[in-house]
Amino acid sequence: MVFNLFRRRSRDAERKVYCEIVAQARQPVFYTDFLVPDTIDGRFDLIVLHAVLYFRRMRGEGAKVSEFTQGVFDLFFQDMDASLREMGVSDTRVPKKVKVMGEAFYGRADVYIRAIDDNDAEELAEALGRNLFPDAQELVAQKRLALYMMSAAEKLSQQSTENLIGGDLTWPEAEAFAAIAV
User: Fold this and answer.
1) Which pTM was predicted?
2) Cβ count near 81 (within 10 Å)
3) Rounded to 5 degrees, what angle do the CA atoms 151, 156, 161 make?
Protein backbone atom coordinates (compact mmCIF):
# COMPACT_ATOMS: atom_id res chain seq x y z
CA MET A 1 0.00 0.00 0.00
CA VAL A 2 1.28 3.49 -0.84
CA PHE A 3 0.48 4.82 2.60
CA ASN A 4 2.93 2.39 4.20
CA LEU A 5 5.76 4.33 2.56
CA PHE A 6 4.96 7.35 4.69
CA ARG A 7 4.28 5.57 7.95
CA ARG A 8 6.65 6.19 10.77
CA ARG A 9 8.24 2.96 11.93
CA SER A 10 7.27 1.68 15.33
CA ARG A 11 9.43 2.89 18.18
CA ASP A 12 8.19 0.30 20.64
CA ALA A 13 11.59 -1.35 21.05
CA GLU A 14 13.36 1.98 21.59
CA ARG A 15 10.66 3.00 24.05
CA LYS A 16 11.06 -0.27 25.97
CA VAL A 17 14.82 0.26 26.28
CA TYR A 18 14.35 3.85 27.39
CA CYS A 19 11.78 2.76 29.99
CA GLU A 20 14.21 0.15 31.32
CA ILE A 21 16.91 2.81 31.68
CA VAL A 22 14.53 5.15 33.50
CA ALA A 23 13.19 2.37 35.73
CA GLN A 24 16.70 1.51 36.87
CA ALA A 25 17.52 5.17 37.46
CA ARG A 26 14.43 5.52 39.65
CA GLN A 27 15.37 2.75 42.06
CA PRO A 28 14.82 4.22 45.55
CA VAL A 29 18.21 2.95 46.77
CA PHE A 30 19.97 5.62 44.70
CA TYR A 31 18.14 8.36 46.58
CA THR A 32 18.33 6.81 50.01
CA ASP A 33 21.55 4.85 50.39
CA PHE A 34 23.58 6.58 47.67
CA LEU A 35 22.30 9.99 48.82
CA VAL A 36 21.55 11.27 45.32
CA PRO A 37 19.28 14.29 45.78
CA ASP A 38 15.69 13.39 44.91
CA THR A 39 15.35 16.49 42.76
CA ILE A 40 14.86 17.18 39.08
CA ASP A 41 18.63 17.48 38.66
CA GLY A 42 19.34 14.33 40.66
CA ARG A 43 16.84 12.32 38.66
CA PHE A 44 18.18 13.70 35.39
CA ASP A 45 21.72 12.76 36.39
CA LEU A 46 20.75 9.20 37.26
CA ILE A 47 18.99 8.76 33.93
CA VAL A 48 22.07 10.17 32.19
CA LEU A 49 24.31 7.82 34.16
CA HIS A 50 22.33 4.75 33.08
CA ALA A 51 21.86 5.97 29.52
CA VAL A 52 25.61 6.52 29.20
CA LEU A 53 26.24 2.97 30.40
CA TYR A 54 23.81 1.65 27.79
CA PHE A 55 25.15 3.77 24.94
CA ARG A 56 28.74 2.89 25.85
CA ARG A 57 27.91 -0.79 25.59
CA MET A 58 26.17 -0.38 22.24
CA ARG A 59 28.95 1.59 20.52
CA GLY A 60 30.71 -0.12 17.65
CA GLU A 61 27.87 -2.57 17.02
CA GLY A 62 27.18 -1.43 13.46
CA ALA A 63 24.90 0.91 11.58
CA LYS A 64 21.58 -0.74 12.50
CA VAL A 65 22.39 -0.67 16.21
CA SER A 66 23.62 2.89 15.90
CA GLU A 67 20.31 3.87 14.30
CA PHE A 68 18.45 2.08 17.09
CA THR A 69 20.42 3.76 19.87
CA GLN A 70 19.90 7.12 18.17
CA GLY A 71 16.18 6.41 18.47
CA VAL A 72 16.59 5.73 22.21
CA PHE A 73 18.60 8.93 22.57
CA ASP A 74 15.91 10.90 20.71
CA LEU A 75 13.24 9.50 23.02
CA PHE A 76 15.30 10.57 26.01
CA PHE A 77 15.38 14.16 24.87
CA GLN A 78 11.75 14.13 23.75
CA ASP A 79 10.91 13.02 27.28
CA MET A 80 13.04 15.81 28.75
CA ASP A 81 11.29 18.32 26.48
CA ALA A 82 7.85 17.03 27.51
CA SER A 83 8.82 17.05 31.20
CA LEU A 84 9.95 20.67 31.02
CA ARG A 85 6.67 21.65 29.38
CA GLU A 86 4.68 19.77 32.04
CA MET A 87 6.61 21.68 34.71
CA GLY A 88 5.45 24.91 33.12
CA VAL A 89 8.62 26.03 31.37
CA SER A 90 7.61 28.43 28.62
CA ASP A 91 7.68 27.30 25.00
CA THR A 92 10.41 29.82 24.22
CA ARG A 93 12.68 28.58 27.04
CA VAL A 94 12.29 24.84 26.48
CA PRO A 95 14.72 24.60 23.53
CA LYS A 96 17.37 26.50 25.50
CA LYS A 97 16.95 24.23 28.52
CA VAL A 98 17.05 21.10 26.34
CA LYS A 99 20.26 22.39 24.74
CA VAL A 100 21.82 22.81 28.19
CA MET A 101 20.69 19.28 29.08
CA GLY A 102 22.26 17.97 25.87
CA GLU A 103 25.54 19.66 26.67
CA ALA A 104 25.40 18.22 30.19
CA PHE A 105 24.75 14.76 28.77
CA TYR A 106 27.71 14.88 26.40
CA GLY A 107 30.03 16.31 29.03
CA ARG A 108 29.11 13.62 31.52
CA ALA A 109 29.28 10.89 28.87
CA ASP A 110 32.82 11.90 27.88
CA VAL A 111 34.10 11.78 31.45
CA TYR A 112 32.18 8.67 32.56
CA ILE A 113 33.11 6.63 29.48
CA ARG A 114 36.76 7.60 29.67
CA ALA A 115 36.93 6.64 33.35
CA ILE A 116 35.18 3.31 32.75
CA ASP A 117 37.35 2.53 29.72
CA ASP A 118 40.44 3.33 31.81
CA ASN A 119 39.06 1.24 34.70
CA ASP A 120 39.55 4.30 36.91
CA ALA A 121 36.95 4.21 39.68
CA GLU A 122 38.60 7.18 41.43
CA GLU A 123 38.22 9.45 38.39
CA LEU A 124 34.65 8.24 37.98
CA ALA A 125 33.89 8.95 41.65
CA GLU A 126 35.29 12.47 41.30
CA ALA A 127 33.14 13.12 38.22
CA LEU A 128 30.07 11.80 40.02
CA GLY A 129 30.83 14.15 42.89
CA ARG A 130 30.98 17.16 40.59
CA ASN A 131 27.73 16.22 38.86
CA LEU A 132 25.55 14.61 41.52
CA PHE A 133 26.80 16.43 44.61
CA PRO A 134 27.95 19.88 43.42
CA ASP A 135 27.19 21.62 46.72
CA ALA A 136 28.63 19.09 49.17
CA GLN A 137 30.67 16.08 48.13
CA GLU A 138 29.51 12.69 49.41
CA LEU A 139 32.81 10.83 49.09
CA VAL A 140 31.59 7.43 50.28
CA ALA A 141 28.42 7.56 48.18
CA GLN A 142 30.42 8.70 45.13
CA LYS A 143 32.84 5.78 45.46
CA ARG A 144 30.04 3.28 45.93
CA LEU A 145 28.20 4.68 42.93
CA ALA A 146 31.41 4.51 40.85
CA LEU A 147 31.82 0.85 41.79
CA TYR A 148 28.19 0.25 40.84
CA MET A 149 28.79 1.88 37.45
CA MET A 150 31.91 -0.19 36.80
CA SER A 151 29.96 -3.33 37.63
CA ALA A 152 27.02 -2.24 35.46
CA ALA A 153 29.36 -1.61 32.52
CA GLU A 154 30.79 -5.10 32.95
CA LYS A 155 27.34 -6.67 33.30
CA LEU A 156 26.07 -4.92 30.17
CA SER A 157 29.17 -6.05 28.24
CA GLN A 158 28.23 -9.67 29.00
CA GLN A 159 24.74 -9.31 27.51
CA SER A 160 23.96 -9.92 23.87
CA THR A 161 23.22 -7.02 21.57
CA GLU A 162 19.94 -8.68 20.62
CA ASN A 163 18.79 -8.78 24.24
CA LEU A 164 19.86 -5.19 24.80
CA ILE A 165 17.99 -4.00 21.72
CA GLY A 166 14.98 -5.99 22.85
CA GLY A 167 14.88 -4.13 26.14
CA ASP A 168 16.10 -7.09 28.18
CA LEU A 169 18.64 -5.15 30.20
CA THR A 170 20.08 -6.67 33.34
CA TRP A 171 21.63 -4.31 35.85
CA PRO A 172 23.56 -5.18 38.99
CA GLU A 173 21.67 -5.00 42.25
CA ALA A 174 22.38 -1.46 43.44
CA GLU A 175 21.69 -2.45 47.05
CA ALA A 176 24.78 -4.66 47.00
CA PHE A 177 26.95 -1.57 46.47
CA ALA A 178 25.20 0.64 49.00
CA ALA A 179 26.98 -0.93 51.95
CA ILE A 180 30.42 -1.64 50.49
CA ALA A 181 33.19 -0.43 52.74
CA VAL A 182 35.33 2.05 50.80
Assistant:
1) 0.89
2) 16
3) 170
